[in-house]
């Protein structure tokens, strides 16, 4: 069931750009979801800056994929795949990060006005979350076998 997640890598994640149009009343950013995302959207939520020095996320999903957009302000997303790490700053409302299943993520270093929008491929399911980092590393490095 989770075989694909065991083999995803950071390089499978990518930044997506969205067209921004000046309407004369201000910029308008639109997302043609079927053209941008490799998954149908089944859930959406947003988060606001919490405590500046506390990271959000700190988990991987077995099946859920996400698109994260900084619709206001900025924050960093730390991606880990059991072999490498990458930090991506999101600070443009017309750009988002597609995170594949099986990738550990933490969201940190929020600006005071940060708001993040997250589009998900699956509804919330607590069984889809891997929150134990050491167990996650063993699982990824073992090709999904623990």
TrEMBL record:
CDD domains: cupin_QdtA-like. InterPro entries: QdtA_cupin_dom (IPR008894), RmlC-like_jellyroll (IPR014710), RmlC_Cupin_sf (IPR011051). Pfam families: FdtA (PF05523). Residues 12-139 form the Sugar 3,4-ketoisomerase QdtA cupin domain. This is Sugar 3,4-ketoisomerase QdtA cupin domain-containing protein. It comes from Mariniradius saccharolyticus AK6.
């Amino acid at each position: 069931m989770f075989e694909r997640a065991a083999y995803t890598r950071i390089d499978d994640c990518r930044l997506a750009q969205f067209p921004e149009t000046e309407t004369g009343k201000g910029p308008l950013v639109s997302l043609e979801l079927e053209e941008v995302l490799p998954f149908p959207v089944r859930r959406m939520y947003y988060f606001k800056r919490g405590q500046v020095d506390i990271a959000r996320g700190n988990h991987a999903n077995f099946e859920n994929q996400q698109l994260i957009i900084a619709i206001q302000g900025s924050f960093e997303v730390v991606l880990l795949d059991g072999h490498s790490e990458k930090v991506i700053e999101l600070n443009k409302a017309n750009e988002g990060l597609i995170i594949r299943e099986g990738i550990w993520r933490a969201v940190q270093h929020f600006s005071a006005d940060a708001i993040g929008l997250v589009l998900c491929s699956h509804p919330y399911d607590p069984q889809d979350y891997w929150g134990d980092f050491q167990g996650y590393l063993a699982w990824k490095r073992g090709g999904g076998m623990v």
